[in-house]
Amino acid sequence: MFTTIIPAQFLGGKIGVTELLLILIIALIFFGPSKLGDLGKGLGDAIKNFKGAMKDHENSSSEPAQPTDKK
Question: What is the pTM of this model?
Answer without folding.
Answer: 0.48
